[in-house]
Design a protein that fits this description.
Elements (H helix, E strand, L loop, with lengths): L8 H15 L8 H12 L3 H12 L6 H11 L5 H43 L5 H49 L11 H12 L8 E9 L2 H8 L1 H18 L5 E6 L2 E7 L3 H17 L1 E4 L4 E4 L3 E9 L4 H17 L5 E3 H4 L1
Parallel strand pairs: 6-7
Antiparallel strand pairs: 1-3, 1-6, 2-3, 4-5
Helix pairs in contact: 1-2, 2-3, 2-4, 5-6, 8-9, 9-10
Length: 345
């Protein structure tokens, strides 16, 4: 399976020339994050990033190093840098406290060891009964002090273990959230690509096909213009819920940006995927979405779909591109329909 950067040397050289030309008018230094942001923007392989960049450029915003780093962290980096920073700081605090406590306990251990040695020396001498009783009492007192220190250390170790496990879970949650589209709860593009990579190394799928289904809401700009962006968001969420209800097992749903979705169907034939797509499309076409503020339901929302496939460890970027071509064929043929790439090629 190839990575997302599929351009050959000549094409990448042309992209480099464009980056130097476009980025030269902005104050951001030519750091790796800056280059990555401009590269993914100019190649169009990262729609959410492209949308954010276009908004900035349309507003004549100067792209600073701080802005490019923010775009890189949000749209390219695989995890939340703020979560990583918080995790590191909290781990340093926990380990620092534990080390300090262990040092204190270590001091108690040293004193206890010295005391035992002195008690041993005393026992080699002549001791009457009162002296022996006093010595035993001192040993018992020091032993109790040492036991309390050990118990306290064990308690501290248990608390620290629990806190570290909690921090690890918080970091894992942050990583998971970085792969999820916040509006719909389905995967974002990065999460979708991670699912593809997992399937590529799945031994059970090596000789099987993966189907890519690209979906786009028809006339979505008109929906926003007519009913407002809040209703538009509700439409996007409703369609995401329909898609989630129709997938199972290793199938995955993602929102790639705006009104565009993708569905990943491993070990599925093109005809099987077509049947699933038509079931989804017809269900959405027949559905109604309620406008809470107007106490009315809006119907007639439709989607267009394109489908293509590839081997599990094949060139999935090419397959997604073909599915996208099939999607636009559906658009050009009147919308509200499903097209297989094999039919259009």
């Amino acid at each position: 399976m190839t990575n997302r950067y599929t351009q050959d040397k000549a094409a990448s050289a042309e992209i480099l020339r464009l980056i130097l030309q476009k980025a030269a008018g902005h104050p951001a230094s030519f750091t790796p994050p800056t280059y990555a942001v401009w590269y993914e923007f100019l190649t169009g392989i990262n729609p959410p990033l492209s949308e954010a960049m276009n908004n900035l450029l349309n507003d004549n915003e100067q792209i600073t190093g701080e802005i490019t780093q923010g775009l890189f962290d949000l749209h390219i980096s695989e995890s939340n840098p703020e979560a990583q920073k918080a995790f590191r700081l909290n781990m340093q605090r926990v380990l620092g406290n534990l080390a300090q406590f262990a040092e204190t306990t270590g001091g108690e251990t040293g004193r206890f060891s010295d005391g035992l040695q002195k008690y041993g020396e005393k026992l080699t001498g002549k001791l009457d009964t009162p002296m022996l009783k006093n010595l035993v009492s001192e040993i018992m007192q020091d032993t109790q002090t040492m036991r309390s220190s050990v118990d306290a250390l064990q308690g501290k170790l248990h608390d620290s273990k629990s806190e570290i496990e909690k921090l690890q879970q918080e970091l894992q949650n942050a990583r998971s959230e970085a792969l999820i589209d916040p509006l719909t709860g389905v995967f974002n593009r990065r999460g979708f690509e991670l699912q593809i990579k997992k399937l590529a190394v799945n031994a059970d799928l090596q000789d099987k096909k993966i189907v890519f289904m690209m979906l786009d809401i028809d006339f979505f700009k008109k929906v926003n213009d007519t009913y407002g962006h809040l209703f538009g968001d509700k439409v996007i969420r409703a369609i995401a819920e329909v898609l989630k209800a129709k997938v199972k097992g290793q199938d995955s749903v993602a929102r790639l940006g705006g009104e565009e979705f993708a569905v990943l169907l491993p070990d599925t034939s093109l005809q099987g995927a077509y049947a699933v797509a038509e079931h989804i499309r017809q269900g959405i076409e027949k559905g109604k979405i309620r406008r809470q503020e107007k106490q009315e339901s809006v119907e007639g929302i439709t989607i267009s779909i394109g489908i293509a496939d590839c081997d599990a460890n094949g060139d999935w970027t090419d397959a997604m591109g073909k599915a996208d071509e099939a999607l636009y064929a559906s658009k050009n043929q009147g919308r509200n329909r499903t097209t297989l790439y094999s039919v259009t090629s």
